[in-house]
Specification:
By secondary structure, this protein is mostly beta strands. 0% of the residues lie in helices and 69% in strands. An eight-stranded antiparallel barrel has the order 1-2-3-4-5-6-8-9.
Length: 175
């Protein structure tokens, strides 16, 4: 049953923890699951600060003798603040810092290593649809900007800058 009360729910009150996970449903295909775990704490009624973390590791298992083998590893940390206008509507904002490395191995050649770093900002609004007293389903609309730098063979190159708008869906447990 979804919560339809107008008073402040205990789930958005000071001292409540927010544990959850979010999936970007705009830029990720349904076959690529990229769940981002989140942890937050309500420092005041309806105001939460938190942190999300993402980790990505891929090995294409290519043949180093033919096309090369490519391995990618990246991590991103994203602090955020979220304010609940009422029990359902929230606004949020935050930034992200990430770094990663891609290594390409080919037989008879030195490994090619590309390192990158990124920084981004995001703002959004969403709905917190309570399912019972502790679980919330949270669809959101988010606008993000980001830029990156890459280092390859000791030279640094500015990467592309992005401005994106899209949707995400989250699931959170409030304790």
């Amino acid at each position: 049953i979804l919560n339809t009360q107008n008073e402040i729910s205990p789930s958005v009150m000071k001292g409540t923890y927010l544990l959850g996970a979010t999936q970007d449903i705009t830029s990720t295909s349904w076959s690529d699951i990229a769940i981002t775990p989140t942890f937050g704490y309500f420092i005041a009624d309806k105001l939460a600060f938190g942190l999300s973390f993402s980790y990505f590791n891929r090995n294409d298992n290519g043949d180093p003798a033919v096309s090369g083998q490519r391995t990618t590893l990246s991590m991103t940390v994203s602090p955020f603040v979220r304010y609940y206008m009422n029990d359902k509507l929230f606004i949020s904002g935050g930034f992200s810092m990430g770094s990663g490395k891609t290594t390409t191995k080919m037989d008879g050649m030195d490994d090619v290593v590309e390192e990158n770093s990124s920084f981004g900002l995001n703002v959004g609004t969403g709905l917190s649809l309570m399912w019972g007293e502790r679980v919330a389903i949270e669809p959101a609309f988010v606008i993000s900007s980001s830029n990156s730098k890459s280092t390859d063979n000791n030279s640094t190159v500015d990467g592309p800058s992005y401005l994106t708008a899209g949707f995400s869906i989250g699931l959170s447990l409030r304790m």
